[in-house]
Amino acid sequence: MSTSPGQGSEGGFHSGAALFTFDATQRIRSWNKAAEEVTGIGADEVVGRYCWEVLCSHDEAGGIVCHAGCSFHRLLRERWPVAPPILMIRTATGTRRFRVPMITVEDRTLFAALLVDPGETPASAPVPEEGAQATSLTPRQRTVLAMLADGKPARKIAAELQLSEMTVRNHIRAILRGLGCTSQLSAVARARHLGLV
């Protein structure tokens, strides 16, 4: 027997882990029972609302992550792999720390995310000292970083800078290494924290 989305439908996905799906407009399409349990928020309160409006997530440094047109959503739509971030997610009683693996389920139209207790999450790559971060990026990498912070995808950056998309992707990899980050989103958040963008 299927349930309606407002009753916590998992949209055809079954998981004992806290799972929700969202669409290309960033609206939540399903919110399972486990998601209700870990957040204290019922499916009837969230299905149909924007994911950023429900999750209100930020990174551990306090930088806002969830917003209209967020980098995670853009990366998923463009079929980039998204390293599972650690996010502070809104719950019925405050905020809670989760690791949030995300995948594209249907061709750029439906996405799924889990809310996982980070537990013994492996440590992220070591972060260089702040002064080293500010000076280790080349002027071109800083330009690419600023364009990433504006929400521009690699393809658009390449066109605007008259570079190949592969060159831009190489710059992005260098930026991630230079800032000690594992995703474009965390690199932008770190750069904002350091005043680089």
Please give the structural blueprint.
Elements: E1 18-23, E2 28-31, H1 33-39, H2 43-46, H3 51-55, H4 71-77, E3 86-91, E4 94-99, E5 102-106, E6 110-115, H5 130-136, H6 139-149, H7 154-161, H8 165-179, H9 184-194
* Residue share in β-strands: 15-25%
The residue-averaged pLDDT reads: 81
Uncertain stretches of 5 or more adjacent residues = 1-10, 120-128
Please give the largest β-sheet. 4 strands, antiparallel
Please tally the helical runs, counting DSSP H or I stretches of 4 or more residues. Answer: 9
CATH superfamily of the largest domain: PAS domain
Number of domains: 2
Please state the CA-atom Rg, rounded to the nearest Å: 18 Å
Brief account:
With 197 residues, the chain is an alpha+beta fold. The protein contains nine helices and six strands, in the order ββααααββββααααα.
Write a structural description.
- With 197 residues, the protein is α+β, with helices and mostly antiparallel strands.
- It has two domains: 5-115, PAS domain (Beta-Lactamase, 2-Layer Sandwich); 130-194, Arc Repressor Mutant, subunit A, CATH 1.10.10.10.
- Helices cover 38% and strands 17% of the residues.
- It contains nine helices and six strands; from the N terminus they run ββααααββββααααα.
- A four-stranded antiparallel sheet has the order 2-1-6-5. Strands 3-4 form a two-stranded antiparallel ribbon.
- Strand 3 and strand 4 form a beta hairpin.
- Mean pLDDT is 81; it is low at 1-10 and 120-128.
